[in-house]
Predict the 3D structure of the following.
Amino acid sequence: AGLGSASRLAEHLSGLGVQRPLIVTDRGVLAAGILDGAAESLRRSQVAFEVYDETVADPPADQVHAAAGQARAMRADGVVGFGGGSSMDIAKLVALLASPGCTQPLDDMFGVGNVRAARLPLVQVPTTAGTGSEVTPIAIITTAPGTKQGVVSPQLLPDLAVLDGELTASLPPHVAAATGIDAMVHAIEAYTSHRLKNPLSDLLAREALSLLGANIAAVCAAGEGQPAGAEARGAMLLGSCYAGLAFANAPVAAVHALAYPLGSTFHVPHGLSNSLMLPHVLDFNARSEQATSLYAELAPIVCSRQLGECAASAAVAAGAFVDHFARLPAELGLPTTLREVGVAEADIGSLAANAMLQTRLLPNNPREVHLDDAERIYRAAL
């Protein structure tokens, strides 16, 4: 971690014995010049790299296969994910599929613990402070309209994650806001996860929420061309990383389950999808005793203006916590209704049905979610 650390990419790869890496990124990162410093370090060190830049949000499986094909054709001996969560997720799977001797098809890898292949060396360089994908053993791919599937395996953890606040300096405020709330969702859902919640994930989640909550407004208020201070941008990246580590140990739940169909069906960016669903899932969960208690524990971290309320009772503190996240998206200039991203009343049934397919995520929620619950949550968000 540290300013300029991405410009030492050649040094990082050399330590792993990598001389022919494939860099997985997207055209926006290239056009903004965000890759330039890292690429120059590779050229100076005479590293024979290639770039795959076709990544899109909610990437389909054919992009994974295309990138893996390019890696095999160049005989890549390592993979670098350089971008947002989509680029890093593709990079994880390319490192598996392009590994010499890999015969396992992608379709056999979906699910938890199904990966049998070894992988190439993998370095992840996030350019947004949000997904935490640089430190998680999960890759999410769109496999059909409205449907996402995940590969979950320790083999997807990278050899190295590089956190460089300089890379986030050019983020537009709305992107910084959406990705920042995405990271906060990771922290919240890890802390309240019904399954696998543990002291380590709790510690990481609380520290993540503290860093993110204290810096997100400053980062988003800076505006394009007027980046926030390096300290605030670095804190957001570190908070995002901690949140990623938290949910790698205590998995996310209903916010993500209801957000996924928005991305796969309406192509709403993942961070914005989570932002749209967060207030309404929090409100739904807060009607359970378990969630109320946990939200009350988190409330003082983000509700500094309401510390008196937070001390009154668990119910009052949980209410302040829910209210904070009901206001935050609008305060950061994000859309706050599903109608603003193209969803209509007629879409609710199919969205809810698709959300219920997220059986990897829904059991982690502190309150059980049924089909009619999902429909009501979507309708509240409409």
DSSP finds 15 helices and eight strands in the chain. The mean pLDDT is 94. The longest strand covers residues 138-144.
